[in-house]
Amino acid sequence: MTTMPDFGAAAVPSRRARIAIAVAVALAAGALSLVWSAKLPDLVSDFDHLWYAARVAVHGGNPYAVIGPGRAFDYAWVEHYPAPAILLVAAIAAWLPLLATRAAFIGLSSGALAYGATRDGYGRLPLFLSGSFFMAVTATQWSPLITAMALCPALAALAIAKPNLGAAVTLAPLDRRAVIAAVVGGVVLSAASLVFIPGWPAAWLANVRGTGHFVAPIRHAAGPLLLLALLRWRRPEARLLLAMACVPHTTMVYETLELFVVARRRVETMLLALLSWVAWVSQIFLNPRVPLGPGGSLMTDPRYAAYVHDVGDVTLALMYLPCLIIVLRRPNEGTVPAWLARAARGGEALVRPLLTRARAARPGA
């Protein structure tokens, strides 16, 4: 039986071609952001609080005290991003207005993703036609940049900006360059952030503890099935999928963009792109669309909690489980550090006697 080749078996574009594609995607994403903002002038994107936080911090204020329901920046959540994210946004927000900052941020992030996505060929390009990418651009999300970190090890230096998913996509594959970049970048950005916003870790941790919409996909009804990715522990994409399943994060469709790293064939990328549109439409229909009013908080609204849970079920069924099937269809092959191989052999040695006893205890054995 013939099989489709991996991206690496196809023609790899030159660096000049990759840069041209990256620039084109960056400009298209930035333009889409501006058009979307023009069509929805009252839109408050998920990025706007960071723009405001950066402006406050640049002028010596504490953004963790002024963002949230009923505060100076009346937002449905308190500020739950760490100061390194605010510091990075400040590099743009300090000199650009809000709409331009949105476009610049999502354009740069999308361009970086396009450059990384073409490192093995053109097979990942259909991800830019996915519902995951469209929602990420129109909501000005971090997922394009986080996904780019999985494909460009140097960008792992920015992982501390969104530490939950940043760690999942940069550390789980065990790429030495990405691990070093994440550690060094994390130390440098954290130190710089302490100068930028003194004492931020305590305020940030207090806010994160009160944010209940971050739930690990593995906690959903069929979530434990994702542990089957351990059967392919030698493969970096299997470890990434497992890390994404175990790390608490929002389960909205834009946060499935990172799962496209699992794809190794064009048809797999196209399948995930199609499923992401189905998930996005489902997310729209599940939305209760009940206004909260001034000072309303989504953090404590039971309708929003139920909505997030339902969206998580849809995301699990339409994106995570197909990725699991894709991974399980591949052999358990790949280069891993010696310590991980030793740990795996030790785990097998512990489990094997238990399986032997279980078989012996079966009736008729």
Spell the H/E element sequence. Answer: HHHEEHHHHHHHHHHH
* Low-pLDDT segments: 1-5
Question: How large a portion of the residues is in β-strands, by DSSP E?
Answer: under 5%
Count the DSSP helices: 14
Number of strands: 2
Mean pLDDT: 89
Oligomeric state, counting identical vs distinct chains: single chain
- How much helix, percentage-wise, in residues? 55-70%
The secondary structure category is mainly alpha
Largest sheet composition: 2 strands, parallel
Terminal Cα separation, in Å?
38 Å
Indicate the overall shape: globular
Please state the CA-atom Rg, rounded to the nearest Å.
21 Å
Strand order, largest beta sheet: 1-2
Give your account of this protein's structure:
Helix 5 packs parallel to helix 7 and helix 11 packs antiparallel against helix 13 (302-328). The protein is built from 14 helices and 2 strands. It has helices at 15-39, 48-58, 63-66, 83-93, 98-117, 131-138, 143-151, 163-171, 176-196, 200-209, 236-246, 266-286, 302-328, 338-361, and strands spanning 67-68, 73-74. 43% of the residues are buried.
Task: Kindly summarize this structure in a few lines.
By secondary structure, the chain is mostly helical.
Quick tags:
single chain, 365 residues, mainly alpha, two-stranded parallel ribbon, 14 helices, 2 strands, globular, disordered N terminus
